Amino acid sequence: MSSIGYLLVKLVLKLKGEKKSWSQDPIDYHKKRKQDIHTPNTKLLLGNAFKTKKICNSIVTSIIPKNTNTDFLLLYCHGGAFVYGPTRENWIAIAKIAKQARSYAWMVDYPKAPENTIKTITESVYQVYLEAIKTYNPSKIILIGDSVGGNLIMTLTQRLLKEGHKLPNRVIAITPMVDASLTNPKIEKIDLTDPILSIKGVKSAKKMCAGQLSLKDQLISPVYGDFNNFPPMYLFTATNDICTPDQELLIDKVKESNGVIEVITGKGMPHIWPILPILSEAKTAIKKIISIINLAIDDE
Fold first, then answer.
1. Which CATH number do you get for residue 118?
2. What is the number of structural domains in the chain?
3. Which range marks the domain in which residue 124 is found?
4. Looking at CB atoms within 10 Å, which of 13, 119, 178, 291 has the fewest?
């Protein structure tokens, strides 16, 4: 049974016309960008101090909680269909996680489509990682991403493997978009119950980002990439999310590669449920993320 919080969230989503906005082709990314917050303040970051710098066309905000007691870094890529963000929800989520885990965190505000293609975006995220490992041991970096941010941390890890770089400690993917083509036949049925996303608008945004690449190119669809020797992955899924059928294929692929993957399923939940406001289910998910981080710290 859904919580009261989720019923309220569904009502707000309906009043805002969220599903309708994702049913347009082309998607109105200018309207979506009205939610963007590129420079936070300490109130938004729940009292955490912060510093901002530019790395290869990404604005990187370093979040510095009080009483930090670890040399781990949480490297966070936000969602937004590659065309907008970060939003208030992204900032609050990473601020909560950093504060409760007492770990440093970087919010990666990467360049967006359609002004930039997936090649430019992934290159920027890659350069941010290379900058991070100048200060932090790769074994003490945890990648976190929601929606297309989950996509970006997977394509980053695939590139690191391909080029022989040292890998991050763990990958935490929150309802990631792993196949930009959205051709999985199971998606159409879920589109009827997904209260946020719709095939038409999501695919429109991915076309804006792909440039000359196929939507099934592994650079924009990591499910077609290699998962051999991947670091441990923690995958948050949702039953009312059009991204889930492709995540199921991802799970199979990781297991076939003898990889370690833990799946946390949000039953009856929508896309990005762990970072949505007022959800009791989201609070539980954030606690789970903190426990994953603490496990990594304890293992070191």
1. 3.40.50.1820
2. 1
3. 4-299
4. 291
